[in-house]
């Protein structure tokens, strides 16, 4: 019996070592696409940076930002030219960056920076208290900073001065800036004057936990969890302070909400729902494994199937499958960081140390 156990353990160890070795060899090889089934976009260019990419972002028009643990670089969207590159602290590789209004806002545990989007020069920096932080939102006037499980801080986007702070949520606090008002979503909605921090109004949902949310043109779409088995998707107009509709779903762990014009997308673990923002009616449902990183370009929806590492292209109106692109091995083997964003006409995704730009 002992001998059989030793043999079994040896076979298991060999199998694990083989998978690791195969994955190592694959990732050392020249990165390539693994499959293309009538994908409607073609590769425009790719660029390899010196390290594993932690995050990509864009100003939505001309510039792509690429962040690693040690650097932040900007590339021209069309020409691929490197515009600038600056060193950043290694801790900053784990925190989000937001480009808006000609600035790039980046933080680590100790400092919040504002860089000039065109040159990469430091416009200002503000000291933080050394806790885990995220940047939920920013505008040309204000920057929001969330100290996880603690506070929400509001900074002046021009000077870097901290204006005020308020109590945050149990974890990551979702908050938004709209028309000089800041909305914090947690057990309902709180609306603050962005400059003074005065509470303008509050919607209390009777201690029902609030989950994911997204803000679109004055309307907050958010999740409520009335019990352990279902959740409500709620649309609330923050201008007239009125609930527009709510739709009940069986709880299947939604991972994010996306809003595009008059369409709302709800990705769950096994499906993607397209929902009419005016009525809450479901237009179509498409089955996927762990869909995320949704983008819309020229009437098509692009969604990254995270587990299988496939980008799917769907018709926006009908949800019809029109093509796919497998960009690497499935998640069970791949150790590479991958994400996807878009501009008005370009699809951008990262894989390992490379960034890819696709267009029509």
From the structure above, extract its key features.
single chain; 360 residues; mainly beta; five-stranded antiparallel beta sheet; 1 helix; 8% helix
Summarize the structure.
The chain has 360 residues and is mainly β. The protein is built from one helix and 33 strands.
Describe this structure in words.
The structure is a single chain. By secondary structure, the protein is mostly beta strands. About 10% of the residues lie in helices and about 50% in strands. It has one helix and 33 strands. The chain has one helix at about 1-30; strands spanning about 35, 40-50, 55-60, 65, 70-75, 80-85, 95-100, 105, 110-115, 120-125, 135, 140-145, 150-155, 160-165, 175-180, 180-185, 190-195, 200-205, 210-215, 220-225, 230-235, 240-250, 260, 265, 270-275, 280-285, 290-295, 300-305, 310-315, 320-325, 340, 345-350, 355-360. The strands form eight sheets. The chain has a five-stranded antiparallel sheet, with no helix packed on it. A four-stranded antiparallel sheet has the order 2-33-32-31, with no helix packed on it. Strands 3-4-5-6 form a four-stranded antiparallel sheet, with no helix packed on it. Strand 24 (about 265) and strand 25 (about 270-275) form a beta hairpin. The radius of gyration is 22 Å and the shape is globular. The N and C termini lie far apart (about 60 Å). Residues about 25-30 have low confidence and may be disordered.
């Amino acid at each position: 019996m002992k001998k059989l156990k030793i043999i079994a353990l040896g076979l298991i160890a060999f199998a694990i070592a083989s998978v690791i070795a195969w994955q190592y060899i694959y990732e050392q090889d020249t990165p390539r696409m693994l499959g293309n089934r009538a994908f409607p976009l073609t590769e425009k260019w790719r660029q390899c940076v010196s390290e594993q990419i932690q995050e990509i972002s864009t100003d939505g028009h001309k510039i792509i930002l690429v962040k690693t643990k040690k650097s932040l670089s900007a590339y021209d969207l069309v020409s691929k030219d490197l515009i600038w590159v600056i060193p950043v602290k290694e801790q900053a590789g784990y925190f989000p960056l937001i480009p808006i209004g000609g600035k790039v806002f980046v933080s680590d545990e100790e400092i919040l920076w504002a860089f000039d989007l065109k040159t990469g020069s430091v416009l200002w920096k503000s000291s933080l208290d050394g806790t885990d932080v995220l940047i939920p939102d920013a505008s040309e006037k204000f920057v929001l900073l969330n100290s996880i499980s603690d506070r929400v801080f509001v900074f002046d986007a021009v000077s870097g001065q901290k204006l005020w702070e308020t109590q945050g949520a149990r974890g990551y606090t979702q908050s938004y800036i709209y028309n000089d008002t800041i909305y914090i979503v947690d057990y309902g909605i709180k609306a603050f004057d962005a400059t003074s921090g005065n509470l303008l109004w509050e919607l209390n949902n009777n201690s029902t936990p609030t989950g994911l949310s997204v803000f679109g043109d004055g309307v907050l779409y958010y999740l409520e969890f009335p019990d352990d088995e279902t959740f409500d998707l709620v649309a609330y107009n923050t201008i007239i302070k009125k609930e527009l509709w709510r739709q009940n779903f069986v709880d299947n762990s939604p991972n994010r909400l996306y809003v595009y014009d008059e369409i709302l997308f709800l990705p769950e673990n096994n499906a993607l729902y397209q929902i009419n923002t005016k009525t809450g009616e479901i237009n179509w449902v498409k089955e996927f494994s762990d869909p995320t990183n949704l983008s819309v370009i020229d009437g098509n929806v692009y969604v990254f199937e995270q587990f299988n590492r496939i980008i799917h292209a769907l018709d926006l109106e009908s949800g019809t499958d029109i093509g796919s692109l497998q960009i690497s091995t499935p998640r069970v083997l791949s150790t590479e960081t991958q994400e996807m964003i878009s501009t008005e006409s370009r699809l951008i995704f990262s894989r390992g140390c490379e960034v890819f730009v696709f267009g029509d």
